[in-house]
Design brief:
This protein is mainly beta and 83 residues long. It has one helix at residues 3-10, and strands at 16-21, 26-35, 42-47, 63-66, 70-75. It is built from 1 helix and 5 strands, in the order H-E-E-E-E-E. It has a 5-stranded antiparallel beta sheet with strand order 4-3-2-1-5, with helices on one face.
Length: 83
Amino acid sequence: MTPSDLKCLKSNIDQIVVLDTVRGECLLAKVISVFDQESDPDIFFWDVTSDPNKQDSLQTEGYSLPLCDIVSVRKYAIEGGRA
């Protein structure tokens, strides 16, 4: 993960981003918090891969992912936008 990827994570708290992981996964994650000053830096998020429109109040479980397991981060592009 590059410094610009980390900046993308931090600037998109409460927003959806696309995470590509070292395991080859592509996740849609709604960022809850980013802990980059800890001994084990990680991100805490809701996995919204199956339903990006799921309301926060319906989320039942958050996930943690070490920052070292993230290959790249990009802002989620909502389908149906202007061309």
